[in-house]
Fold this sequence. Notes:
The chain is of the alpha+beta class and 107 residues long.
Amino acid sequence: MNILLDHFHxxxxxxxxxxxxxxxxxxxxxxxxxxKIGMTETEIQAELEARIEEFRCGIYRKQYMDAxxxxxxxxxxxxxxxxxxxxxxxxxxxxxxxxxxxxxxxK
Length: 107
């Protein structure tokens, strides 16, 4: 998995970041707000890298909106998502959740 800051701009209270997250063959263009201003591009990139698993889980949530993810002990959120997907995207009630097509939030 890789994340790359594409561009950003500051408001009065935060920094709006637009990035590309790549996971294998999947490429996602998404955005986030960092609750700081005055950051350098290097600092913003480091913040994005520190939060890459959070962003990937957020993308999974948008693709599988009705998913019920039960996290096991010692498992990260990302590992729980990956296990659930590898298991066939099946909720505890046996409902199979279809993957929604990703729509980039910016171009």
